[in-house]
Amino acid sequence: MTAATAAPTHRGQRRAVGPLTGLRSLLRLHLRLARRGILIWTLAVLVLVPASIYAMEDVYPDQAALDARATLLDNPSAVMMTGPFFAADHYTFWAMVANELLLYLLVPAAIMSILLSARLTRGEEESGRLELLRSLPTGRLAPSVSALLVVALANLALGAAVASGMLIGGGGTADSLALGLATALTGLVFGAVTAVTAQLTEHAGTASGTALGILALSFMVRGIGDVIERDGSWLSWFSPLAWAQQMRAFVDLRWWPLLVSLAAAAVLLVIAGRLSHRRDLGAGLRPAAAGRAAASAALLAPGGLTRRLVGGTHLAWGIGLFLFALAFGSLASSLTDFAENLPDLAGMAPIRLDDLTGSFSAFVLMMLAIGPVALAVSGMLRMRTEETAGRLAGVLVAGTSRARLAGQWFLVVLLGTAAMQVLLGLGVGIGVWSATEDTAWIGEMTLAALTYLPAVALYAAIALALYGLGSRLAPLAWLLVVYTALVTFLGQMLGLPDWAMDLSPLQHIALVPSEELEVMPLAVMGVTAAALALLGLALLRRRDLAAG
Amino acid sequence: MTSDDAAVHVRDLTKTFGATRALDGFDLTVPHGEVTGFLGPNGAGKSTTIRVLLGLLRASSGTARVLGKDPWRDAVAIHHRLAYVPGDTNLWPGLTGGEAIDVLTRGESGERHRRRRREELIERFELDPTKRARTYSKGNRQKVALVAALSRDVDLYIMDEPTSGLDPLMEAIFTDEVARLRADGRTVLLSSHILAEVEKLCDTVTIIRAGKAVESGTLAELRHLTRSTVAATTDADPAPLTRLDGVHDLVAENGRLRFDVDDRALHDVLPVLTALGVTGLTITPPSLEDLFLRHYGDELEPVTKDAS
User: Is the pTM of this model over 0.80?
Assistant: First the structure.
C-alpha cells in the first residue's frame, strides 16, 4: 500500500467526531452573517449613550432640578416606563441616568438578541440551509451552539459599548461595568428564550414573534411589580428586565442579581437543547395538521389572501395591545394620589395637572398607537416579501392588476390597524373605567383612539409609496417608525427641539380627551395619505417586478 | 407573419439591468395552435423573456406582442387569456396546496370547467391538496403550479422549465397533458434546457444564447444541428462506415464501434450496420450540452444554415 492512498483514510480516522465537530468553521460563517448587524447595534449604542448623558446634563444642571425630577418620577406611570425607584430621597445625576436610561438599553439588547437568535437558528433551518450544513461533517449541536455563541458575542459587544458609553459620559468604573454586563446578560437571556421558542415552531417569524411577546410581557410584569412597591416587589423578580435593574447601579451597587440572569440563560439553553433532541430537522414539536383541500370563499374574496397573510399577526398584536391598554388604563386612578405634590409635569410627558386622568390616558393612547403604526408598515412590507419570494407573479398572472392588488392590500392593512385602534381605545377606556368607575371613559377613549387613524394610514401610505418606487427602498419606512417611537417615548426626556419632534406625524394629533380635538392636522394627514397611496400605486405600475 | 397572426411576437427585444444586457435584440415567434420550444442554457435570458411577456418586466427597447396586445400596458387583459408555470414555484408556506391552486386560478370565468379539471389533474399528478405548502417537496410545489395552470381554460400557456423537480412518471403525464393542449388547438411556449423534452413536444424551436436568438425553426429544419452517438458491437471490419457521409470520429476497438452521426444521415448508416452483422446497438440522442459545445463553443456566432 502506498503512502498516497493510505493518507486520506488515516486522516479520516484521526479526526475526532463529536456533537461539536465543525464548530469553528460554523462560528466563522455565523459571524460573517451577523457582523454587520452587530456592528450597527454596537455603534448606535456607543453613540447614543454618551449623547443621552450629555443631553441629560443640559436639562438637569443642579440638585434642585434633580429633586424636581425625582418628585415628578415618583408616580406609577413613570415607574412603569423607567424602573424601580431606588434613590427617591437623594436623586443624584447618575442615579437618574441608571434609572431612566437602563430600560431603554435592555430592551434594544433583548430585541437584537431575539432577532439574531431566531435568524441564526430557526431562520437557517427553515430556509433549508441548515440541512446543507448538517450534511457536512458537522456535529448535531454545533450549529445551535455556534449561533448562540454569536448571540453571546453580540451581547458582549453591546455590553462593552454600554460600559464604554457610560465611562465616556463620566460614570464610575464599577457601576458603568455593571450596567454593561447587565445589558449583555439580559440580552443573552432573551437570546436563550428565543432558542427555546425556535424549538417550538417551524418558522423564524413565529419564533421571534413569540420571544418578542415574552419581552413585552416581561416589560409589563416588571412595570406592575415596581408600581406595587416602588423599589421592586416579588412580582418584579419574574421579569428578566428586573434582574438587571435590581443591581441598583449608581445607587447601591450589588452584583448577585447577575447570577440570576446567568442561571436563567443556562437553564433555558439546556431546555432548548433537550427539545432539539426530540424533534426532526425542519420540524416543530407539533406536527402540522392537514388543512382544507380547497380555498374558502373568504380566501378568494378581494383582499382575502392579504387577510390570510397578515391577519394572524394583527390578531395576536391586537390582543397583546388590548391587554397593555387595559393595564395602563387601570393605572389612571393611582395618579390622583400624586397630584398634590407634583411640580411641573411637562418635563417628562405631555400630562396636565388639572385633568390628570384624561391627559394620562391620552398619553398612553399615543404610546400604544406605535403598535398599529408599526403593523401598518409591516403589513405593507409583507407585499414586498411576497414579491421577492416570487409569489406575487402567480397572483398577478391569475388576472389581478398590480394597482388593484396593492390597493386591496392597503385597504386590508388599514382595516386591520383600524380595528386594532378601536381595541386600544376600548382597552384604555375599560381600564380607566375600572379605576374611576365612570363608564363615560369607555366611549370617550374609543373615539379618541380613532383620531389616530389618519396618521396610521399615513405610515401605511408612505410604505406603499416607497414600495412603489422600488422594492429595495420599501424598508426605509421603518426608519420613520423607529423615529416616531423615539420621539414618543423619549423625545421630551431627551429634550429634542420642537422641529425634530414635529417630524413625527403622531406629534400633530391633539391629546384627546384632555385637549380639544383638532380636525385640521387629521385632515391634512388623511389627504396626504390618500395622495401618497395613489402615488405608490401609480409608481408600482411603472416598475419591474422582482423574480417570479 | 404580421404581429397579430402569432400568439407571441417578439422583435429586437432588449432588456438591461444596470450594466447587464439580459436580452440583446432577441426575436421570438410563437404561432397560434402550436407548441413552441424555447431552449437555452441557464442564464441565457429565457426567464427574462418570459417575464417581459407576462408584463412583470418592462422591455428596454424592441417590441413584444402577446395575443395581439402589449404585455406591459394590457397585462391584465392578457393574463385573463394565459396561464403560467414558473420554473421554481414558491408557495405560501401556511396555505395548503389546494388553497394555493384556488388562489392562483381566482377570477376564472369557466368555473365549472376549472373545477372538473382541477380534480382530474390533482388525481393524475397524485397531489395531496390538504397538505401545507411548507411540507411539499420541490416536485410537489411544481405540481401545484402545473395543476393551477393546466386547469385554466385559456388560449396561451407559458411554461418556464415546468418539469424541473418532477419524476419521470410525472414528466410523462405532463407530456401527455401538453399533447392534449395541442390537440385542443391551444398555444404553448415551453422553455427548457432539456433537448429531449423539447423534441418530444414541440413543433418549432427557438434557441437563445446570451440574450440573442441563435437558431429558430421547425425541428426538421434544426436536424442539421443534432448528431447522435452510436455504439455497436460487431466482429466485421468497420471500413464501409468510414466511407459514409455524416459519420464522424469513428473508433473501433476489440470488436466495439463508436462514432457520431448526423441525424439526417442516420438512415444511410443503419443498412451498413445491418450488413456488418451488429450484435449490440445503442444510439444516444444528442444532448443540448453537446449541441452547444459543438455549434456555439464559447462564441456567439450564429450557426451557418448551409451545414448540409
Answer: no
